């Protein structure tokens, strides 16, 4: 975990981003159980669709443009849809 945290801080510094932003993102994407870090959401099932979709988005650009805390999500109309 310490190496991963150091990596995130180094990336933030290289990009000129607040390290807190990267540390919060790291905390949100990991589920720590019994001292073992698991990706959240799990890489199977819907998690796979989410992670695959990230390849189509430049998240660093998104992070730079966000000026307040927010929750980003990707919805597939074939799986879910917003109420009309």
Description:
Helix 1 (2-15) crosses helix 2. Strands 1-2 form a two-stranded antiparallel sheet. The protein has one domain. It is mainly alpha-helical. The longest helix is centred in the first third of the chain and has 14 residues, at 2-15. The protein has helices spanning 2-15, 19-29, 46-54, 59-65; strands spanning 30-33, 36-39. It has four helices and two strands.
Pick out the low-confidence regions: 74-84
Q: How many distinct helices?
A: 4
Alpha-carbon Rg, integer: 15 Å
- In total, how many domains does the architecture comprise? 1
Structural class: mainly alpha
Shape, please? flat
Number of strands: 2
Record the strand order, biggest sheet: 1-2
Question: Into which percent range does the helicity of residues fall?
Answer: 40-55%
Oligomeric state as shown = single chain
| Major pleated sheet | 2 strands, antiparallel
The span between the termini is 43 Å
Beta-strand level of the residues, as a percent range?
5-15%
Strand and helix map with partners:
Layout: H1 2-15, H2 19-29, E1 30-33, E2 36-39, H3 46-54, H4 59-65
Antiparallel strand pairs: 1-2
Short description:
The protein is mainly alpha-helical and 84 residues long. It is 49% helix and 10% strand. Residues 74-84 have low confidence and may be disordered.
Features:
single chain; 84 residues; mainly alpha; two-stranded antiparallel sheet; 49% helix; 10% strand
